[in-house]
Amino acid sequence: MRRKTNYFTRIVSTILAIYFTITVAFPIFAGDVNFTDVKKSDWFYESVRFVNEKGYMKGVSNTSFDPVGNLTRGMCVTILYRIAGEPETNGKNIFSDVKVKEYFTLPVIWASNNGIVYGRTETTFVPNGTITRAEFSAMLFRYISSEALSLEETRIGSPADYDKIPSYAKDAVLSMFRCGIINGREGGIFDPDTFITRAEAAAMIERFVRATRQLPHIHSYKATVSYPTCTKQGYTTYTCECGDSYVDDYVVALGHEWGTWIETIPATSNADGEKTRTCSRCGASETEPIPSTGPENPTTPRVVVLGAEAFPGGSVTLIVSIDNNPGFNAFNISIVFDGEVLTLDSVSLADGIPGQFGFKKYAVWINDSDYSTDGPLLVLSFTVNEGVSTEQTQVTVSFEDGDFSNYAEEDVFLEVVPGVVKIVEP
Question: For strand 342-349 and strand 375-384, is the pairing parallel, antiparallel, or unpaired?
Fold first, then answer.
């Protein structure tokens, strides 16, 4: 005995069969962009998100949008049909290759009956055939016309290859180019005969919908991080392509990481010195004086090299001075410095010093009477070598016992206080 099938059960089974047929033929994936082949860094990301959220375009699978894949004619009419709100369609299917229950069946009937698309022949539509950029533009423009939608021109001109656009698509391309729906490719060309990709179609659909329906703009912010420095707080600036921006995610300033103090100018018996420390993070430096405490014997005669600052490739002049001068009429002095950092250009007597002077390997001076004035004695001119990386270098003078003598041919003894050249950025 054959068992009778419940009528309700048959209806449910039919509905489920149709659902699974459509699902397998054209998988859906709406909502957030979770496609593995669409990254936030892609130029088409926002467009894919827009058309996907609106339900105008769906994935080719649950995980793939196939942005570089070619759009087909069936996909194109389906997109337009969804934008139109999937209206009821009572027209006749005239195409033999558009079968019942395909995902594109109703869209093709609707589009062909409204003059939006035409078949490849009178009886074939070729739904799985690819579509050029010119063909897609013509279909989209026919839809705009059929819906009596208005477009506002936002620029003038035309694509650089306008003369190569087929005649049937010239008006469509020119109108949508001037309305900003079409942006063209590198070099300002439209490239009409190239097959349009799904990503390109998504971008044009988003611009078209926004231009004709005046949808509220959805901000898409790009983050630009300004990192904190020693003295300034960090923050992130979020900017949308529409120009809107805001600042957030503040980070407190890092503060300096000071190194140890380095003596750059030694203190003398009658003058303050100087010390400097540098931040290892940003290179900033600060300077403090070193108070003069005076020598154990304030009357100790000294030869003092006064320090200075210079930059790589620059010149620097140092003064060799006498402090508590006991009086002398001759000296024989050598100049001591780091030849990898400095090049000695010249050595001369300070202004107002009498006597005869010469310099080759040593600075040699003789006078017919004792000189006993405190102050500048020699002028040393250096060039700082290019490419040096040191922060400072020492310059001093050297002499043996007897190299300073007075008119009575007695040895004159003096302490030596070296000087420091601090190397700075130009």
Answer: antiparallel
Amino acid making up residue 7: Y
Whether residue 67 is found in the same domain as residue 94: yes
Q: Please report, rounded to a whole number, the percentage of residues in the chain having pLDDT higher than 90.
A: 60
Query: Are 182 and 232 in a shared domain?
Result: no
C-beta of residue 377 within 8 angstroms of C-beta of residue 322: yes
Residues 100, 161, single domain; the answer is yes
For the beta carbon of residue 322, count every other beta carbon within 10 angstroms.
22
Q: What is the pLDDT of residues 2-35, one digit of tens each?
A: 344 444 444 434 444 443 333 333 433 334 578 9
Residue 385 sits in which domain range?
262-423
Based on the fold, state whether residues 190 and 271 are members of the same structural domain.
no
Report, in angstroms and rounded to the nearest whole number, the Rg of the chain calculated over CA atoms. Answer: 43
Q: Percent helix, strand, coil in the chain (nearest 5)?
A: 20, 30, 50
Tell me how crowded residue 341 is: count the other CB atoms within 10 A of its CB: 20
Run of H or E including 199 = helix 198-213
Residues contacting 239, CB < 8 A, separation 6+: 221, 222, 224, 245
- Taking residue 141's Cβ as centre, other Cβ atoms within 10 Å add up to 21
Q: What pLDDT shows up at residue 2?
A: 38
* CA–CA dist 184, 409 (Å, integer): 95
313 contact partners, CB below 8 Å, separation of at least 6: 383, 384, 385, 386, 426
Q: What is the dihedral of CA 295, 299, 305, 306, to 10 degrees?
A: 70
60 in any annotated domain: yes
* Assigned domain for 1 exists: no
Question: Both 228 and 209 in a single domain?
Answer: no
Q: What is the pTM of this model?
A: 0.45
Same structural domain, 281 and 239: no
Residue 293 to residue 268: CA distance in whole angstroms:
8
CB 148 within 8 A of CB 175: no
Do 223 and 49 contact (CB within 8 A), yes or no? no
Residue 45 lies in a domain: yes
Residues 195 and 323 in one domain: no
Name the domain count of the chain. 3
Q: How far is CA 270 from CA 167, 192, 291, 317, in A?
A: 95, 86, 10, 21
* Identity at 366, one-letter amino acid code: I
- Asked if residue 257 is part of any domain, the answer here is no
SS3 370: strand
- pLDDT-derived band at 183, boundaries 50, 70, 90: confident
Which DSSP string do the residues of 122-178 spell out, in sequence order? SS---TTSB-BHHHHHHHHHHHHHHTT-----------TTGGGS-HHHHHHHHHHHH
